Amino acid sequence: MNLKINYIDSLIKNGLGNVKTEHLLSIRKLDERYKVLVDSLGTKLTGTSPLEKLENTVRLKLAYLSMRSILLDSLGENADADKVVEKSIIKDIAKQEEYEAKEKAEIIRSRVDHSAYKDLKVQRQTPMETIKSNYFQQLKTLEEELDNMINDQNYDKEAISDLQSLFELISESYTMLSDPLYKLKVDEKDFMGFNPNQEKLFVPGNFADISYVPALKTKVDKNGEEQITVLSFDNFQGDTTQVVKTGELGFGRFRQRSGKVTYRDSDFLDEYLVMKYYADPKLRAERKKLTQQEGALTQWDETGDREMFRISTNINYNLLNSPDVDPEYVKYYVNALLSTYNMEEAIKHNGGYVGNIALTRDGEYTVKHDRDKVCLAREISEARRKNLIQNRPSLVRIDRRRKDEFDFEGGDR
User: Fold this and answer.
1) What is the pTM of this model?
2) Do residues 244 and 230 lie in contact, with contact meaning Cβ atoms separated by under 8 Å?
3) DSSP codes, 149-205
4) Which residues are CB-contacts of 322 (< 8 A; sequence separation ≥ 6)?
5) Count of domains in the chain?
6) How confident is the model at residue 42 (pLDDT cuts 50, 70, 90)?
7) In the chain, count of helices (H) and strands (E)?
8) What is the predicted pLDDT for the residue at 321?
9) Tell me: the pLDDT tens digits for 339-348?
10) Is the dihedral of CA 133, 135, 136, 137 positive or negative?
11) Domain's final residue, options 155, 178, 201
12) Half-sphere exposure of residue 353: CA atoms within 13 angstroms, side-chain side
């Protein structure tokens, strides 16, 4: 439940007064109406959380202070409490000031260095429960400041405007981070430092042909059954990522008139199935919804209750399994290269190619994208879409208009 009441309209709403004066507003009427609303908040917000009640209390007090300030400007500082002014005038000015407060908050949010985490005074990647607790305390502090202004009859226009902007800023930041999909994207991008969309590198027809070979399975000595090697990682927020190699992607280049290809690399890029189990049930539910939409980029494994991504890169199994591997390398692998955001963008723009980890001159890990690998992944993705590549060894000729498929064992099909 997310109840947002328009307290400007509520504060000028008529009771059972004189119909002839219903379009007029005085300081006394505003004060009386405010007291009624404060007393009725508990009843009106029955069933809402303590946080939502506090949000609405702050909204009411901000609206009251704003309208009290506008009334005093319109009637004069020493005006009689029963002196009246048109409600519509006060309402329009109050709405305009509310709009300006939102605009001021939006300007702050548009800054390059802006962060919703910074607004809520917490570190990046902070768990949602901690964010919620901090936000609640910020609202309590804000309410105390508003109470002091009301008790002291301090209706300073600039001070009220600043508090309105502050509330708009922190409440919107909290709303943004409360969206598990948004929070996931923001948290993962903090690890990355590279652009996952590399479709600009794609050059159509960059190869004579492309090939796919399913990954070989490894025999298990104990019972003789075949089993695929599975890599398993836990990321910064406790999600479990499992990786299985599913195939090898290759290409041929420079076809002679005889039809022979003079250069071939049959294992230029590896294809993987990445299965991600999200620890947060809200995030898991939202990601599952995405897989059920038309044109979804990924699939949902009902048995394991996890999301499945088909991607390509070159994973060094020996290095990742080595006891001497740099922990920062593994951390970057799971939190950046195999992040949901990077994989999703790669599927959308790069044919599933997520890039390869490299070191910068400063010794920091980053992800680089090879042009030929982008081209190969895109061509493989297109061939799959046309059902030219399925789960068997396949060779697809792409250097002429008519796309022919070849089987490694059966020849020209």
Assistant:
1) 0.84
2) yes
3) HHHTT---HHHHHHHHHHHHHHHHHHHHHHSHHHHHHHHHHHHH-S-S--GGG--TT
4) none
5) 2
6) confident
7) 13, 15
8) 87
9) 999 999 999 9
10) positive
11) 178
12) 31
